[in-house]
UniProtKB/TrEMBL annotation:
Organism whose genome encodes this protein: Alicyclobacillus cycloheptanicus
Pfam families: FUR
Family assignment from sequence similarity: Belongs to the Fur family.
Highest taxon of the lineage: Bacteria
Name the UniProt record assigns to this protein: Fur family zinc uptake transcriptional regulator
């Protein structure tokens, strides 16, 4: 996914294409495996965009998450982190709480659960497993 693809999609959906939004999108596209907090994004933007507020960053992150451009993960320290959405098929994540490494879990735990949802029709879901990667677990 390129920054231009994302910007075209947002424009088609009626959203403004501000310089700040473009810069935030480019930050995620340039660093597809990195996870950023809202403060990380703000700190990365303030030098080039000194008038950008933290509120603007939060609104942009919300918009990008709503359009499935980025995904949120909640590390153990309670601070939401965002990364470029995976474009792979349906999958979930294993997240190391020590080093932050994110691995893909291809099987879906929901599909293997024998549960009665009482007529509830799931549209989407998330399943992240937090723990220690092999390198951090052996320390």
């Amino acid at each position: 996914m390129s920054a231009e693809d994302v910007l075209r999609r947002l424009k088609r959906e009626g959203h403004k294409l501000t310089a700040g939004r473009k810069a935030i999108i480019e930050m995620f596209v340039r660093n597809p495996d990195e996870r950023f907090s809202a403060k990380d994004v703000y700190d990365g933007m303030v030098a080039e965009h000194p008038h950008m507020s933290l509120d603007t960053v939060y609104r942009t992150l919300s918009l990008l998450e709503e359009h499935q451009v980025i995904e949120e993960t909640q590390p153990s320290e309670g601070v939401a982190k965002y990364q470029l959405a995976c474009v792979q098929s349906h999958h979930h994540h294993l997240i190391c709480i020590a080093c932050g490494k994110v691995s893909v879990l291809q099987s879906c735990p929901l599909s293997s659960c024998e549960m009665d949802l009482g007529g509830f029709l799931p549209v989407r879901h998330r399943f992240d497993v937090y723990g220690y990667c092999p390198a951090c677990a052996s320390v």
